[in-house]
């Protein structure tokens, strides 16, 4: 018996100083049972789940890659590239609850969180945000979801 499969893949790169970049990719293969393969909505749901799983994996991987482990051009001399983030003094970091909310909302909406963070705040992870930045991002993500 031929078992139907779905293959989902994502990749993402984030630019770094001195023309370097951080990158991650994910490929997930999902086997469908006989009933799922005949149900378009079930197939769409499995595809969404696979993409969400890949998004989380990529975000986690990019979060674990530090500038010290990702040496791009201009860092061949063994020096650590400059940090992409410098939070101003006196700014409180985002709370764990805010970070979880950001990840959950972005995942539900299919937003590439690392790209969104890079574009808006020049950071690669929500734990690099200040409490006020995290609050603003949550509001913006909720508005985006309401518009969809």
TrEMBL record:
It comes from the Bacteria. Residues 62-97 are annotated as: Disordered. This is Uncharacterized protein.
